[in-house]
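Q: How would the structure tokens look for this protein?
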Amino acid sequence: MIERRITTPSTEHARRRRLEGKVVLVTGGGTGIGRAAALAYARDGARVVLAGRRGAEIEAVAHEIAAAEGEALAVVADVSQEDDVRRLITAATKHFGRLDAAFNNAGVLGHVAPIAEQTSVDFDTVIATNLRGVWLSIKYEIEAFVAQGGGGAIVNTSSWLAHGALAGTSIYSASKGALDALIRAVAIEYGSQGIRINNINPGIIDTPMARSGWSDDAAFVPFIEHTPAKRAGQPADAGDVAVWLMTDEARFVTGQNILVDGGYTIAGLR
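A: Here is the predicted structure in token form.
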């Protein structure tokens, strides 16, 4: 695992900085929702650890944070690999001295196709990152929180598909449904130690991953037409909710799966 470090002193800004001095880990931090959240964490005063499989992408985000007088550490890691996750947490705590929060955002869409056209390799690939990778991340993040004496916040990226449906996404949907169930047990297990855990469940967000499945702009039109907001979501629409869930404003929120979908999943006549 290759580590890249970029650090510049942070300065006070006029805006209120709700995460001042906190250390926040963002997996899948190079693009889309992860990138938007990482930049927002930094604006709110956090020192950010960026993790991803593609070093150039996370280093670019680290440079953006540094250019805005923030602090960032970029670590190349694959969350589906337990050794990588362990080394990632070690790198974060060694460099910044502690870990206060984590946004487990890394995920893959996988092969979009009817189930009879999918393979067991397709299944294993998606589950390895979307479920095993998040489970591993939560495990080692909580170990770090407990070793520090407790306290901490975790947010994971789930999906509206955890309780919705879209043809061709059976494996992806299953991975996110399991993630929604997983956090409820964790919230009960560690709530007494001041550790909170929640999911955001984005709707139709215009990200590189979404584009990999539906690259044509016309593919977004039916979703936009059925969304009260009448637009696709932008990465910051979901990323800002992930930031809020780590602040003291969300101190009594845990074990929740929070839809961020512009109202797309509201049942009713269209």
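The chain is about 40% helix and 15% strand.

The first strand starts at residue 3 and ends at 7.

Upvote if useful.
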